[in-house]
Amino acid sequence: MKLTKKKFQTDFKNRLHEKFAIETVDANAQELFESLGSVIKNYISEDWRDVRRYQMENKNKTAYYFSIEFLPGKMLRSNLLNLGILDVVRDGLSELGLNFDMIAEAEKDMALGNGGLGRLASCFMDSLASTGLPGFGNGIRYKYGLFKQQFIDGYQVEFPDAWLQSGNIWEVRKAHEAVEVKMEGNVWLKEDKATGNFTPVYENPRVLRAIPYDTAMVGYENGQVNNLRLWDVEIPESEERKYYSINERRQVQDITGVLYPDDSTYEGRQLRLVQEYFFTSAGLQTIVKHYLKLGIPLDEIHTKIAVHINDTHPALAVAEFMRLLIDEHKMDWDRAWNATVKTMSYTNHTILQEALEKWPVDMVKFLIPRVYQIIEEIDRRYVEEMSKVADPEIVGRTRIIQWGQVHMAHLAIIGSHSTNGVAKIHSDLLKDVVLHDFYVLFPERFNNKTNGIALRRWSQISNEPMSKVLDETIGKEWRADASKIKLLESYADDKKVKDKLANAKHQNKERLAAYIKEATGVEVSPNAIFDVQVKRLHAYKRQLLNLLHIIKLYMDLKENPDLDITPRVFIFGAKAAPSYYFAKSVIKVINEVGTLVNNDNALKDKLKVVFLPNYNVSLAEIIVPAADVSEQISLASKEASGTSNMKFMLNGAVTIATLDGANIEIRDAVGNENIVIFGMDKDDVYAHYYAHDYNAWGVYDADPIIKRVVNALVDGTIPNIVREGQEIFDTLIKYNDEYFNLLDFHAYVAAQEKIDRLYKDQKTWRKMSLINTANGGQFSSDNTVKKYAEEIWHIVPGK
Ligand SMILES: *Cc1c(COP(=O)(O)O)cnc(C)c1O
């Protein structure tokens, strides 16, 4: 958009007066931020309205992305960048004597997600708008986002994230678009004698009012504004019932109260299922309502609407859509089923068994009786139809209802036309192992869409020093077209360019060092190697392997303080699910190792260990640009894709990695010589599974180095970890090290030694770093959503 500094300053000052009746000099950061946000929202609203109108008039096909998590982080900078007014606003504020960074800091992170899954959803929202695609988000407006993490005595302590307390400047409440969601009670089918149709009759249902809050998703300099719709719950106003007790009110409010702090294990709580149905039903109801306004027969709904099921949490969409078509709109079953399958598509995000959602039949029946009837009928017909053409045993294994449980992934696959994995290796594992039976029955439904990242946020917004070097070297086209970053590769041997990039990296490291000092009190040198592992804390991601190597390094340095290594700072960031004891113990032990080594002068500052509390998107934006080494060390086959691996390589970090998830595609992009790969690959891992031949105790007992390192967990080497050290020791030795940390240990140590050697040769290192950045463009989520659009949703750009 076109905006002069003058106009902006006038708008801004007026808004501040209007809202708070004060002058700029008297306003605090929160007041300044709210006024600024409100001005920006106003700038967006015209385009927002126009895009909506255009959508209606041109009847464009739209994709609806259903996700129980969105993790946008802060939105101010991103909106300004995408509107093309970041510099005007920054300069305008500066002339008024105001510091933009300080104002931007006042925005609360919108943390309605746990990690990768939610962040992906938000990267997709940005990319859909930025590629001009009509793609809308549908989720939940949790009152409390993911908990805030603090360390007390080295332990993780969780505090509520009341992000809405001072309001949310970006959202618009759309009360007139509220819908009712019915749950519980009894349902029976009443026959209409004249037509032979059955109508469900609801007795004593619990009726909830779903209120949408819309947030504009602004495209990058293209005038496109899409919509992220998050649902809140309210008590319905009705004539029959006006009085609700405090308890009843609370029970309703709980539905959108908290985001479950758990992104990969089965959450057994009933409330979670209520959440899943609530936002799925509300979203689908408005979609059907909107579609009917277009005046096209319901049979053709899939020509105008695509519904995407992001992981299984919204998989009830299949049955709920059927309910809407057959119950509310009187379609016959076969026509409704045809439309449903063509409308729905599904992304699988994990192969971890414990994370594949299953719900007890009794719970589903009680909470959503009519939907359960429909699921039963889908299942019955599935068995009947498929048994005619396929092996009955395979059909039996792929049923939706089995052993008293509803299998959400089965419902999603059977009720949709597309199932995709999120990296090549992951999609292959789905076809070959995890969902092999389904692949045999529906090979044409399976495909791969490798994840991506919103490149603008992870370069232009978070890494201005590097972005400037790119501008000076290859021009500015890369800012709009990520594929142009590849032009940087021809400067791989240009010392000047490499020095400039190294200089930018150093600036970012200084910024992070200052943050570390402020947040933890630990002093680190920007001349050390910054070695980073930031991601949710989970056994399969193997923060423990990193820790074991650090313990070894510590012991080596204690033995020989003159050991010739480049000083290294190991930086962690990770939240553990509050009930995940192993993960919390790993945090405690890393913190205690940190206290031990950071205060040991004998180590001559060659080793520091820092665990930054409360890892979130805003913290990632400070950490990622400052990393020299990116730790992507999950057990091969377990990390579906990973996306932080992409953020880091784009920012010039060298990856130390197993051949897992998108690490493999990163290796293919940068070449073997520009990444450090180690350890077992997925075939090695599966070979051990089939042979049942891994004996962790045997490895431990036969290997003095491993023994010494593992014993450090229990022999007092590390103070204050009696219980936690023993717990981790037992996980490794007594419970046979489920994620093969010990099997990969020596390969990992060797890979770390290789990192040290490579870093000493700065000429080579800087070239590696440059080549990583140069190949980051291919992981832009702009590319990813274009593939979804072409191959799954069949939508095209156009306002
Ligand atoms: C990118 C990102 C993730 C995902 O990290 P992985 O290493 O891919 O698991 C998680 N949390 C935040 C805040 C992120 O920005």
TrEMBL record:
Highest taxon, organism lineage: Bacteria
Catalytic activity: [(1->4)-alpha-D-glucosyl](n) + phosphate = [(1->4)-alpha-D-glucosyl](n-1) + alpha-D-glucose 1-phosphate
Gene3D superfamilies: Glycogen Phosphorylase B
InterPro entries: Glycg_phsphrylas, Glyco_trans_35, Pyridoxal_P_attach_site
The keyword Glycosyltransferase appears for this protein: yes
Enzyme class: transferase
SUPFAM superfamilies per record: UDP-Glycosyltransferase/glycogen phosphorylase
Biological process per Gene Ontology, one example term: glycogen catabolic process
Modification N6-(pyridoxal phosphate)lysine, positions: K647
Cofactor: pyridoxal 5'-phosphate
EC number from the UniProt entry: 2.4.1.1
MF terms (GO), sorted A to Z: glycogen phosphorylase activity; pyridoxal phosphate binding
Gene Ontology annotations for the cellular component aspect, listed alphabetically: cytoplasm
Keywords: Allosteric enzyme, Carbohydrate metabolism, Glycosyltransferase, Pyridoxal phosphate, Transferase
Family: Belongs to the glycogen phosphorylase family.
Function: Phosphorylase is an important allosteric enzyme in carbohydrate metabolism. Enzymes from different sources differ in their regulatory mechanisms and in their natural substrates. However, all known phosphorylases share catalytic and structural properties. Allosteric enzyme that catalyzes the rate-limiting step in glycogen catabolism, the phosphorolytic cleavage of glycogen to produce glucose-1-phosphate, and plays a central role in maintaining cellular and organismal glucose homeostasis.
Protein name: Alpha-1,4 glucan phosphorylase
